[in-house]
């Protein structure tokens, strides 16, 4: 009985030592999963930026947008390095904890082995088959013989549990050692990856510095060109007639009283439901949840809405957003509406204007259009393909949200999430 109590105490100690770290381990596992998810997202975005830069790598002529793309690349690499540092720190903290758990398990396992050895020795001396039967047969009566037999069975079951506990503890120890070795290896790989990203970051900074200097002389002309294009586009949008007046119905000829009974009144037709809301009320309700007109994961914003500052410290005004996209990027309507204009705009490709009551969405710098003036279109319907600049090979999509007669709204606040 004394041995049994000692074994129970050991089992309780092992159970507590295994249970206490579980909550902390679960929290840490969740944090590590979030870090891994962030790293995957950043790596995916960096890959998209690298693809955009590779499309213009062969062109000698560069624009200010290229600076913005490189700057985005630098920013993303900085975020990735920070995420890698957090992952390395998390593993650095985890390794000593695993080493302590392994040491505790080894001590507990040593105690289990020692007690199992004592039980095995006692079994060998007392509980071999011959001694068991002698003990049962030497009982003074049948009841005593029965209780002796039950006791031997209980002792045998207890020994079996000892063995099972020993095997389980050994398995836990082996798993912890494997986890430790895996963590050490993972830490080494993360350190290598971080070093590689640091080197790439320095290369990106050098590229930005070189491009910055090469564009500085042309910057003033480039800024004037953009402002001229902005004003021309603004003039076109604000002078566009969205809803032409319907012709007045032809009045019916007067009817004489004698002819009145001959007229048969036609049943009133129910008004046909249009494919979109002409008042714009439903469009307003969608603010903050409209789908992106281009693939968000593969594109980056190179020109923000409103009054901003460029790389050279100059004040710039944008009525919408400029989005750098891959070549051949498809453009889709963000909401159902009526196409009120499809125009060729100098230096801005094709422009499509879609009416949503008092609001318009404008899709500019398209290579081609898939819709025509007067079309009623649905949300996410293809509108056209982004145009690539023949000088730089850049594909820059221009998107605006306009409220008549002359108010421009921040498109980012209307789309489902920021880039």
Question: How would you characterize the overall build of this protein?
Answer:
With 419 residues, the chain is of the alpha+beta class. It has 2 domains: 2-216, no CATH class; 226-244 and 277-413, Distorted Sandwich (Glucose Permease (Domain IIA)), CATH 2.70.70.10. It is 54% helix and 16% strand. It is built from 6 helices and 12 strands. It has helices spanning 2-56, 64-126, 129-137, 142-216, 219-238, 281-285; strands at residues 300-303, 306-309, 315-318, 321-324, 330-332, 337-345, 349-356, 359-369, 376-377, 382-386, 396-403, 407-409. The strands form 2 sheets. Strands 1, 4, 5, 6, 7, 8, 9, 10, 11 and 12 form a 10-stranded antiparallel beta sheet that branches. Helix 1 (2-56) packs antiparallel against helix 2 (64-126) and helix 2 runs antiparallel to helix 4 (142-216). The chain is elongated. It starts with a helix and ends in a 10-residue tail after the last strand. 23% of the residues are buried.
């Amino acid at each position: 009985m004394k041995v049994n109590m000692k074994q129970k105490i050991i089992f309780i100690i092992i159970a507590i030592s295994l249970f206490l770290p579980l909550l902390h381990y679960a929290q840490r596992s969740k944090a590590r999963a979030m870090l891994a998810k962030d790293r995957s997202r950043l790596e995916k975005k960096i890959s998209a930026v690298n693809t955009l830069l590779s499309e213009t790598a062969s062109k000698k002529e560069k624009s200010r947008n290229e600076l913005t793309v490189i700057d985005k690349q630098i920013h993303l690499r900085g975020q990735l390095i920070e995420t890698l540092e957090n992952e390395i720190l998390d593993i650095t903290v985890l390794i000593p904890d695993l080493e302590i758990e392994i040491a505790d398990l080894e001590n507990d396992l040593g105690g289990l082995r020692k007690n199992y050895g004592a039980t095995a020795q006692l079994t060998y001396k007392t509980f071999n088959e011959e001694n068991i039967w002698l003990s049962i047969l030497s009982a003074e009566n049948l009841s005593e013989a029965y209780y002796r037999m039950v006791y031997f069975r209980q002792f045998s079951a207890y020994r079996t549990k000892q063995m099972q506990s020993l095997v389980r503890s050994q398995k836990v120890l082996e798993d912890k050692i494997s986890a430790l070795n895996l963590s050490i290896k993972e830490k080494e790989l993360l350190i290598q990856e971080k070093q590689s990203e640091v080197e790439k970051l320095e290369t990106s900074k050098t590229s930005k510095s070189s491009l910055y200097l090469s564009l500085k002389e042309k910057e003033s002309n480039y800024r004037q060109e953009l402002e001229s294009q902005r004003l021309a586009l603004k003039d076109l949008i604000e002078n566009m007639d969205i809803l032409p007046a319907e012709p007045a119905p032809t009045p019916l000829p007067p009817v004489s009283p004698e002819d009145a009974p001959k007229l048969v009144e036609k049943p009133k037709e129910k008004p046909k439901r249009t494919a979109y809301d002409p008042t714009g009320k439903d469009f307003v309700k969608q603010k903050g949840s409209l789908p992106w007109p281009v693939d968000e994961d593969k594109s980056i914003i190179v020109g923000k809405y409103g009054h901003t500052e460029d790389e050279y410290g100059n004040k710039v005004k944008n009525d919408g957003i400029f989005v750098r996209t891959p070549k051949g990027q498809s453009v889709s309507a963000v909401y159902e509406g009526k196409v009120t204009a499809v125009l060729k705009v100098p230096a801005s490709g094709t422009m499509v204007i879609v009416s949503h009551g008092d609001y318009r969405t404008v899709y500019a710098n398209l290579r081609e259009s898939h819709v025509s003036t007067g079309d009623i279109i649905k949300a996410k319907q293809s509108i056209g393909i982004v145009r690539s600049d023949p000088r730089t090979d850049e594909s820059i999509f221009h998107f605006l949200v306009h409220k008549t007669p002359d108010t421009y709204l921040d498109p980012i606040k209307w789309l489902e999430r920021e880039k």
